[in-house]
Design a protein that fits this description.
heterodimer; B: alpha/beta; 5-stranded mixed β-sheet; 4 helices
C-alpha cells in the first residue's frame, strides 16, 4: 500500500509523481496502464489543487492510497474540501476549449470511477482493470 | 519544465519542451508562445520529444497557444510527440486540431 497525505497545492503534484514512481517498483505494470492510472490521478489531484478549498478558503488536505495486484490497480483519494459540484461530468468540451477536460479524461481511462460525499469529505474510488496478457506471466 | 527557444528565421520559432506539461507548467508554455508570437515569430513548432507526460491543463495550453498563433496570422505545429502525449491527444480527439509531425524538420517543412 502506498500512501500520501498532502496539502492541495501545486507541490503535491510533484509528490504524486514521486509516489507513483515508487509504486511502480512494487507492481509490474506495462507502460500504457501506468500512463492511464497516472493521468487519472493527476487530473483528480490537479482538480483539487485548483478547486480544493475548505469552507474557510484554506487549501484542502488530500489523502491518497494506492494498491496494485496482477489483475487491477486501485486508488482512493479523499479530501476535506467543499463538495465537488459536478462529479459525474463525462462529456468532453468543444475542441477549442482551453479547460474542462480533466474529469472526462479520468472517466475515459479508468474502468471504474466513483464519487461520494461522506462525513464532510470527498471520496473518489478509482479502479483500472489490467489486461489479462499484461506483464511477464504474473497474472495467473 | 524547461523550455528552450530557437529562431530558424524571423517568422518561425521552435520551442523545445522538457519535463511534464501539466497544471504546474502550462502557464509557462503559454507565456513563451505569447512572447514569441507577439515578437513576430507567428509560426510555432513545439518539440515534445522531452515531454513524457501531459495532462488536461497542458492540452489546454497547447490549444490556447494555437489560437494565439492563428490570431496573429500564424500557425502552431507539434513535433516528436511521445506515446503518452499521442494517446492523450487521441483520447480527447484533439489530434484533429493539433497537428502532429514526426520530427521538428517535418514540422518546419512548409510552415
Amino acid at each position: 500500500m502506498s500512501h500520501l497525505v498532502a496539502s492541495a497545492d501545486p507541490e503535491c503534484l510533484e509528490q504524486l509523481h514521486l509516489l507513483l514512481e515508487r509504486f511502480w517498483l512494487t507492481v509490474d505494470v506495462p507502460g500504457a496502464e501506468r500512463d492511464r492510472f497516472t493521468l487519472a490521478l493527476a487530473e483528480l489531484v490537479g482538480n483539487l489543487v485548483v478547486h480544493g478549498r475548505r469552507v474557510d478558503g484554506t487549501p484542502a488536505t488530500l489523502e491518497l492510497r494506492l494498491a496494485g495486484s496482477p489483475t487491477e490497480l486501485r486508488a482512493v483519494l479523499e479530501d476535506d474540501g467543499a463538495p465537488v459540484p459536478d462529479p459525474g461530468r463525462r462529456e468532453l468540451p468543444d475542441e477549442s476549449a482551453v479547460s474542462g477536460r480533466g474529469l472526462a479524461m479520468a472517466y475515459a481511462v479508468l474502468d471504474e470511477l466513483a464519487y461520494e460525499r461522506r462525513a464532510g469529505r470527498n471520496r473518489w474510488r478509482l479502479v483500472l482493470l489490467r489486461a489479462a496478457d499484461a506483464g511477464d506471466g504474473g497474472a495467473a | 519544465m524547461d523550455i528552450t527557444t530557437e529562431y530558424p528565421d524571423p517568422h518561425r520559432v521552435v520551442l523545445r519542451l522538457s519535463g511534464r506539461l501539466d497544471l504546474v507548467s502550462a502557464a509557462q508554455l503559454r507565456k513563451h508562445v505569447e512572447r514569441a508570437v507577439d515578437d513576430g515569430h507567428v509560426r510555432v513548432v513545439t518539440d515534445l520529444a522531452g515531454v513524457a507526460f501531459i495532462d488536461s491543463t497542458g492540452l489546454g495550453a497547447l490549444i490556447a497557444a494555437l489560437k494565439h498563433a492563428r490570431q496573429a496570422g500564424g500557425e502552431l505545429r507539434m513535433a516528436a510527440a511521445g506515446e503518452q502525449v499521442t494517446t492523450v491527444l487521441k483520447l480527447t480527439r484533439l489530434d484533429r486540431v493539433l497537428r502532429a509531425y514526426a520530427t521538428v524538420d517535418d514540422a518546419l517543412d512548409g510552415l
